[in-house]
Amino acid sequence: MITVYEFMVNGKLSDHIYATKRHEPLPWKQRLQICIGVARGLHYLQTGLKRCIYHRDLNPRNILLDEKWKAKLGAFEISEMGPSSLSKASIKMEFVGVAGTRGYVAPENFFVGGLLSDKSDVYSFGVVLLEVLCARKPLEVSVEREEEVCLRDWAQKCKEEGTINQIIDPHLTGKIAPECLNIYVDIATSCVQNEGKDRPTMVEVELGLEHALELQESADAASKDVDPVYDQKCTTSTDLSLDTTTPNGK
User: What InterPro entries does this protein map onto (predicted)?
Assistant: First the structure.
């Protein structure tokens, strides 16, 4: 038997979060749209089938992008079939070591007999949301402190202190509407709560991100209305079509 997969022209999300010689980092609105696509995919896995599916290894390397920058979930090698999608039950896992990628695994899945549930993938997605915003790995070694820094803990601390702007990706500085940023950070930090019961459902995450996008689009439209430079460009340009499909304008 031969299995044929759709070719993902734009590769992995991880290729486009960080600036490299091959890729420029994605603009904020495009990052947000990709995150919404992932949220919809996870929501479907958890509620759209007779039995829910737990991905268990969600991270930017396993989020693939097609030619239209639509997100697709990949790498289901260690996924598990859960109970009925209508059930709120968890399944007890007899792990041999930690399954998944370090830094993205929910705390309850670190030990033998841990409970695997839909909230396990919610946690992983929360880490992805923080990485997309900050362009930082979930675990990094601090040269100054000579210790490992956890992005989740750092982001939660900055949120409490009102200093979240200090750790977002420099490429996004001044480009995120404050209202959008506040909602996005609230969603991301709620997803990475230590206790699964304190995390939101994927439908709540999806709706929250869609609202954040609406706020960003409203802010963008308002800024164009009052920007004289933008108005001048619009009145003097003979071609008003802008290709924003890719970050490189291809």
Answer: ANXUR1/2-like (IPR045272), Kinase-like_dom_sf (IPR011009), Prot_kinase_dom (IPR000719), Ser-Thr/Tyr_kinase_cat_dom (IPR001245)
The structure tokens listed for 240 are 């008003």
Annotated catalytic residue, options 15, 57, 153, 239? 57
Q: What is the pLDDT of residue 143?
A: 58
- Quote helix, strand, coil % in the chain, to nearest 5: 45, 10, 40
Q: Which CATH number fits domain 14-236: 3.40.80.10, 3.40.718.10, 1.20.1250.20, 1.10.510.10?
A: 1.10.510.10
Count other C-beta atoms under 10 Å from residue 237's C-beta. 10
Confidence of residue 7 (pLDDT cuts 50, 70, 90): confident
| Beta bridge pairs of residue 147 | 142
> For the segment 39-62, what is each residue's pLDDT rounded down to a tens digit?
999 999 999 988 999 999 999 999
Rg (CA), the chain: 19
pLDDT value for 21: 78
Measured in degrees and rounded to the nearest 5, phi and psi for residue 162 equal 75, 30
CA atoms of 53 and 67, how far apart (whole Å) = 26
198 is catalytic: no
* Amino acid in position 154: W
